[in-house]
Amino acid sequence: MPSRTIWLGLAFFTAVNACVRLEVEGRWPARGVVRALTIVGTWSYSLYLVHHPAQTIALAVMTRVVPEASVAGFIARAMVLVLISCVAGRLFFEVVERHFLPSHTRRADDGGRWLRRQVRHEIAHSYRQTQYFRASIDGHHCVRYDTLLPCRGVEQSGSSLGS
Fold first, then answer.
1. Whole-angstrom distance, CA of residue 103 vs CA of residue 107
2. Which of 48, 94, 110, 134 has the greatest number of C-beta atoms within 10 Å?
3. C-beta separation of 55 from 81 below 8 A
4. What is the pLDDT of residues 100-149, one digit of tens each?
5. How far is Cα 125 from Cα 68, in angstroms, rounded to an integer?
6. β-strands 149-150, 143-144: how paired?
């Protein structure tokens, strides 16, 4: 049914937006598995590029050393393949991809601290612009509040509603 696909898409869209909002607000967890996934996110494209060749080579070597595996062996083999893929992806990122990224992307490995600093900077910048606007209006003259323009010919001590 097409309607099921739409609802599933909306559910994932909502979940991703909630995660982004948590990160921007600085409430994204910065430890454990979430921290590890956040760090991997910086070099995830490199991981995507090299995981299949790395796993193919590693699996070929492992099946020659241990041709058959039990359930526990299968799980151990899968864990080793994931580890090898992560190491290969990170190496590829360091050697190749990192040099093509802007410097702010390179700082994303800090667990989201860089993004939180940038958001705080933007908020502070916006606040400073607002304060400057207010100071330029209220500064050295009265203000006609109906038009927010300086009053002409009215003394500073007089009414702020000039004629």
1. 7
2. 110
3. yes
4. 877 655 555 555 566 666 667 677 666 555 554 444 444 444 444 444 44
5. 62
6. antiparallel
CA dist 110 and 112 (Å) reads 6
* Distance from C-alpha of 160 to C-alpha of 143, rounded to nearest angstrom: 6
- Separation of CA 53 from chain center: 28
Cβ proximity of 42 and 109 under 8 Å: yes
3-state secondary structure of 70: coil
DSSP string, 79-142: HHHHHHHHHHHHHHHHHTGGGGS-HHHHGGGGTTHHHHHHHHHHHHHHHHHHHHHHHHHHSSS-
Tokens 């209220």 belong to 138
- Quick one: tokens of 29? 């967890």
| CA distance linking residue 144 with residue 163, whole number of Å | 9
Distance CA(30)–CA(3), nearest Å, equals: 36
CB 133 within 8 A of CB 149: no
Q: Read off the pTM.
A: 0.51
